[in-house]
Amino acid sequence: MNKFLYLLLAAALLTACSSTTLNGSWKDPDYRGQIRKVYIVGVAKQEINRRIFEDSFGRELSALGVTGIASYRDLPADELERKEAIVAQLQRNGADAILMARMIDIRTEQVTNPGHVSGSYFAPAPYYRDWDSFYERRFDAVYQPATVSEFQVATIEANLYDADTGKLIWSAQMKTVIDRAIDKLFSDLCRIVSKDLQKQGLL
Known about the structure:
Layout: H1 3-17, E1 20-27, E2 37-43, H2 47-63, E3 67-70, H3 83-93, E4 97-113, E5 116-119, H4 131-136, E6 141-144, E7 147-162, E8 168-177, H5 182-199
Parallel strand pairs: 2-3, 2-4
Antiparallel strand pairs: 1-8, 4-7, 5-6, 7-8
Helix pairs in contact: 2-5
């Protein structure tokens, strides 16, 4: 296999990993409600990431005719641990449900591209009639060393709760490769979540 084919293989492997996938989702089979207004809570260490996620999800819901309310607008980060504060904002906004999302795992994975030898000369052993023929061509072959590419994979959990009862009505896990700007990553993530909610008949 020549150098060009190796590069194509490496690119294909990386491209295959550069996506967000839904690992699985669950819906309460007894829930019959139709959600029209969602209070969005992104749990993140950095406030900017929380805001980007909540705004991204709000836009995806809006495209489906559902109102998404970003919690950062009326719920400070230090209030997220207080259930009473969240309930108060749910009632004030008249939300049907609350969606909470967080990263539960992050790991580093690798793609290894093996080294290989390329050159302008190649023939079976009889080609080298004597040792000086081999010696004359000792520099014709070029060795391409093996390369290792690393990328981070995050596992995201999203849960949807009924605003009135507080019960879990939908849950999902996604896997996403952190290989692009955070706003684009969140946009892909929110699109997958919204599509699954719609597929499950919740939106």
